[in-house]
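HUMAN:
Sorry, I am quite new to this. Are you able to go through these amino acid letters and fold codes? The numbers rather puzzle me.
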Amino acid sequence: MSISIYIHIPFCASKCKYCDFYSAPATEEIREKYVSALISQINSSENSSKTVKSVYFGGGTPSVLTEKQLFSVLEALDKKYNISSAEKTLEVNPDSVFTARSENLLWFNRFSMGVQSFDDEELKLLGRRHSSAEAVKAYEFLREFASNINLDLIIGIPSEDHTKKLENSLNTLLSLEPEHSSVYILKYEEGTPMFKMADEALSDDIVSDLYLYVSEKMQEHGYEHYEISNYAEHGFRSVHNCAYWEQEKYLAFGTGAYGFDGERRYHFEKNVSEYILQNGNVSPITDEILDADQIASEKIVLGLRMSDGIDKKIFENICKDKYKNRFCDNLIKNRMANILPNGNFALTPKGWLVSNTIIEELM
């Protein structure tokens, strides 16, 4: 059995208008103290003989840390858990990517860059710090030494002529040929500046059409649409994110980080000052403890997020209920789901658009 590790770096140069993740600007002194506390937390964690399959530095923007700071965390992880054979991902932004070529940071073998759009008007609307040209330049910089790059895009931005702008952004992304892409539908999270623009949101029908357009276009160019929002060239699925969707265990380090031990979901309090004050010696907060039935139900929910679907035996058990059996038949007839060659039941992109409703009917 293998495990994954998530490291949360809660710092950004500035806050994007749509973001509700735990992050904030910070001085160099605070970042240095945070890294020290993070290393202390790693060093004091329990040893594990399990193979580490993935390490993910998320945030925030982990690349706002210095080369020395990032390497010191990697080194601490390797001494504690041996991460030499793991997929090691560093989230970066176009304006903070240029230390990544350092010999020390080549420990990272995967980079995930938040572009969100290749249109300057949309980037400004989202509160991004970079331009389209700077994003391309940053990608080309990564491409010089990285062989596994993810690029993020956002669809449904309430800009004038967003459909055409999305087409142009997608064409630019495809011309760059990243190994992986995550394409998210814009959410208007309460408490963010973007929430005030919710009245300007594109209609559900328009967003649905855009989602299906992106799916079709990506697949035409050889990408596998393997999860609701994720596309990969053959062999380049995100190992770390698949661990989440496949209900595997993952350790968490850092303030605001979330983890899962197979039964218990937990997180660490979102408080940088307290985390530093305690030198990383903070207790996890239990979010929920799953019993056998909840684990089984969650396996269905997570399985329906992926193109691999839910196991044949689980599907057969669902279909023992006559109503659910008819419901699944109708999904298949309407091309919202299909039966895979191995007997698994999986949603199609059309089904993913209403996956919450489908899941409610099947649970």
